[in-house]
């Protein structure tokens, strides 16, 4: 007797571009998602775009350090770390054929890009924007995953600064975007979940009251204006990520998937015929 089994495959090319300030937890996020996908048997590849990266638990499938490293640029061209990083990223843009060739093998695949931590790359330099535009031109659906350290929510004025940079990145890159609050395991040890809720989905009134208590009256109307700006951009909400909690990891992954409609392009592949009797 023969039975037919349909194998589902995801059509299209998908990218998560993991960005955020230095030390916010980008590489840890990438490692966590790689491990999660390994557990659920989902095929993903790590792409390293950080020319200063040193160590990876999961070997990147594509690595900018094969093209250029920050160490070489600093040594040979006498650049400092920040200027050197910008030089490396511009070098990547000028040699984008290298990336195209490397990506050529990953048709119908899901790629997680670990990016450098220099915030200016996302907020006002055109480099990341050009990289995003190029990936989209090559038919990749790109989701920006902006990682903000959860220590930012311990203080409303720090939170304002974090939200402003996340917003600047979102506006500059113009790609589907999610914001993730990292290191929740550390924060949850100190604060109650109820106290944090206001930051995940901010209420301008509560934020204004809180920050006004800590600032001089001459700043109160500015505080109110910033809180309203945050509220107006209702897409500035944060998804908490606790890397010690599998449900939390799964929720963040689904949110990124939704942003780029991963899973809506599933197509049945060639039916495979199995000889049932032979397996009995
Ligand atoms: N407890 C805890 N520590 C974390 C978490 N995420 C990151 N860290 C720690 O924070 C530090 C920075 O984490 P990375 O993942 O290297 O951050 P990054 O954003 O890749 O840093 P750069 O690439 O240098 O910009 C490391 O010491 C991590 O161990 C987390 O979810 N929980
Ligand atoms: Mg890193």
TrEMBL record:
Job description of the protein: Small GTPase required for proper nuclear import of RNA polymerase II and III (RNAPII and RNAPIII). May act at an RNAP assembly step prior to nuclear import.
Similarity comment text for this entry: Belongs to the GPN-loop GTPase family.
Xref: SUPFAM superfamilies: P-loop containing nucleoside triphosphate hydrolases
Hydrolase as UniProt keyword: yes
Protein name (Swiss-Prot/TrEMBL): GPN-loop GTPase 3
Alphabetic keyword roster: GTP-binding, Hydrolase, Nucleotide-binding
Pfam family, one: ATP_bind_1
Subunit structure: Binds to RNA polymerase II (RNAPII).
Domain of life per record: Eukaryota
Entry GO MF terms: GTP binding; GTPase activity
